[in-house]
């Protein structure tokens, strides 16, 4: 069973939304994976998902995971097969943490939008925006999920 970790800054918006969408779509498709999410910062640790993220997920038919924000831990590099960063900054931070952790595990650390049919780049951060920014973020996640799921199924 493949284990996937989504990572953003605080783990209350982007990574949580990607976690929710992939988890639900995988269950619907009968793909046996484990999905979790975390942040590179401990700033939001213990907090529930942003209410705007919860609203957008629910309004688009997704279940909101019973999740509390957490920071990436050294053991995540051994516990997960695929760790996906929402931005280049997150990717660089994860790569540094991986080296520091001395993790010898065979983990793939990649940029989430590498699976985006519309191109690579950053998953937009809706935190400072309004409801429409959360919609934009969800649309990006919904573009990535089918391709990611296809690779995970193989």
Automatic annotation (TrEMBL):
Keyword Hydrolase: yes
Keyword tags: Hydrolase, Protein phosphatase
Residues covered by the Phosphotyrosine protein phosphatase I domain: 2-151
GO molecular function, one term: protein tyrosine phosphatase activity
Pfam families assigned: LMWPc
Protein name: protein-tyrosine-phosphatase
EC id: 3.1.3.48
Species this protein is from: Nanchangia anserum
Active site: 8, 14, 125
PANTHER family linked: LOW MOLECULAR WEIGHT PHOSPHOTYROSINE PROTEIN PHOSPHATASE, LOW MOLECULAR WEIGHT PROTEIN TYROSINE PHOSPHATASE
Homology family: Belongs to the low molecular weight phosphotyrosine protein phosphatase family.
């Amino acid at each position: 069973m493949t284990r996937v970790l989504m990572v953003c800054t605080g783990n209350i918006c982007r990574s949580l939304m990607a976690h929710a969408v992939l988890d639900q779509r995988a269950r619907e498709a009968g793909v046996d994976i484990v999905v979790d999410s975390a942040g590179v910062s401990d700033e939001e640790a213990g907090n529930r998902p942003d209410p705007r993220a919860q609203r957008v997920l629910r309004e688009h038919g997704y279940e909101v995971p019973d999740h509390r924000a957490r920071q990436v831990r050294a053991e995540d590099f051994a516990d997960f097969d695929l760790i996906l960063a929402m931005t280049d900054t997150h990717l660089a931070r994860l790569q540094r943490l991986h080296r520091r952790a001395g993790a010898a595990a065979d983990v793939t650390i990649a940029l989430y939008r590498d699976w985006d049919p519309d191109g690579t780049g950053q998953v937009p951060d809706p935190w400072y925006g309004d409801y429409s920014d959360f919609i934009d973020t969800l649309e990006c996640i919904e573009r990535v999920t089918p391709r990611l799921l296809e690779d995970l199924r193989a």
